[in-house]
Amino acid sequence: EAHLVESGGGLVQPGGSLTLSCVASGFSFNEYAMSWVRQGPGKGLEWVSSIGSTRRLTIYADSVEGRFTISRGNSDNTVYLQMTSLREEDTAMYYCAKQNGNDDGPFDSWGQGTLVTVSS
Amino acid sequence: EVVLTQAPAALSVSPGERVTLSCRAARTVTHRLAWYQQKPGQPPRFLIYDASTRATGVPAKFSGSGSETQFTLTINNLQPEDYAVYFCHQYYFWPHTFGQGTKLEIK
């Protein structure tokens, strides 16, 4: 069974940077695409970014394009989200999610999330 | 991006009853639609994919149907643990998009 554990969230000022990590276990990490999905306080789910199993595919929501970078280490079963130029509207719980295909698919496993708060 | 509309935003249903939740896509997403259940303070739980296939471990009381632009999630014999928010999600187009959710409340 897949197990995902996020870390790296916290309080950051507008314009600041933060890097989130997600350690995966319980499945063949290098065979599946991975994503970040966020949920603002009291709001719905918003897809943020995805990375394919071989890293050839990386894709971003328009709202974070040019500010966030997704990457993965297939040797350490970790996916990262580097976030720069953070805005108050980036405040959210950030979930790491496994997709059920090597480049795409629905999110079949989720971590517990890490909270990012952007505030002065 | 493909807008997914879930209606109604909230629904009150009595335990033991059956409920059908709706998700409408602004344009066709073929069968590439999933459903998730989310309870307060928890991450989403994967329920249905490819419109009608139950995820591993999901009980048969949950069933999905539909294609193209119209999808439904039916839950039979509602139990206290089924009261939650349900989201639909299309993965046919980038960006992936979610519906705004339907909150299922105890009547």
Question: Which key phrases capture this entry?
Answer:
heterodimer, A: 120 residues, mainly beta, seven-stranded mixed sheet, four-stranded antiparallel sheet, 11 strands, B: 107 residues, 0% helix, globular
What share of residues of chain A is helical?
under 10%
Largest contact between chains = A-B, 21 and 21 residues
* Percent of residues in beta strands of chain A: over 45%
- Rg of chain B, rounded, reads 13 Å
How far is the first residue's CA from the last residue's CA of chain A? 40 Å
Q: Main beta sheet of chain A, described?
A: 7 strands, mixed
The number of helical segments of chain A is 0
Q: How many beta-strand segments of chain B?
A: 11
Q: The biggest beta sheet of chain B, please?
A: 7 strands, mixed
The whole-number mean of residue pLDDT values of chain B reads: 97
Helix content of chain B: under 10%
- Class based on secondary structure composition and strand pairing of chain A: mainly beta
| Whole-number mean pLDDT of chain A | 96
What gap, in angstroms, lies between the N and C termini of chain B? 35 Å
Give the oligomeric state of the chains in this entry, treating copies of one chain as homo and distinct chains as hetero: heterodimer
Question: How many strands of chain A?
Answer: 11
- Measured by DSSP, the beta-strand proportion of chain B falls in over 45%
Secondary structure elements and pairings:
The complex is a heterodimer of chains A (120) and B (107).
Chain A: E1 3-7, E2 10-12, E3 18-25, E4 34-39, E5 45-51, E6 58-60, E7 68-73, E8 78-83, E9 92-99, E10 107-110, E11 114-118
Parallel strand pairs in A: 2-11
Antiparallel strand pairs in A: 1-3, 3-8, 4-5, 4-9, 5-6, 7-8, 9-10, 9-11
Chain B: E1 4-7, E2 10-13, E3 19-25, E4 33-38, E5 45-49, E6 53-54, E7 62-67, E8 70-75, E9 85-90, E10 97-98, E11 102-106
Parallel strand pairs in B: 2-11
Antiparallel strand pairs in B: 1-3, 3-8, 4-5, 4-9, 5-6, 7-8, 9-10, 9-11
Report on this model:
Chain A has 120 residues and is mainly β. Chain A has strands at 3-7, 10-12, 18-25, 34-39, 45-51, 58-60, 68-73, 78-83, 92-99, 107-110, 114-118. Helices cover 0% and strands 51% of the residues of chain A. In chain A, strands 2, 4, 5, 6, 9, 10 and 11 form a 7-stranded mixed sheet that branches. Chain A has a 4-stranded antiparallel sheet with strand order 1-3-8-7, with no helix packed on it. In chain A, a hairpin with a 7-residue loop joins strand 9 and strand 10. Chain B has strands at 4-7, 10-13, 19-25, 33-38, 45-49, 53-54, 62-67, 70-75, 85-90, 97-98, 102-106. In chain B, strands 2, 4, 5, 6, 9, 10 and 11 form a 7-stranded mixed sheet that branches. Chain B has a 4-stranded antiparallel sheet with strand order 1-3-8-7, with no helix packed on it. In chain B, a hairpin with a 6-residue loop joins strand 4 and strand 5 (45-49). The mean pLDDT of chain B is 97. Chain A binds chain B through residues 35, 44-47, 50, 59, 61-62, 95, 100, 104-113, and chain B through 32, 34, 36, 42-46, 49, 55, 87, 89, 91, 94-101.
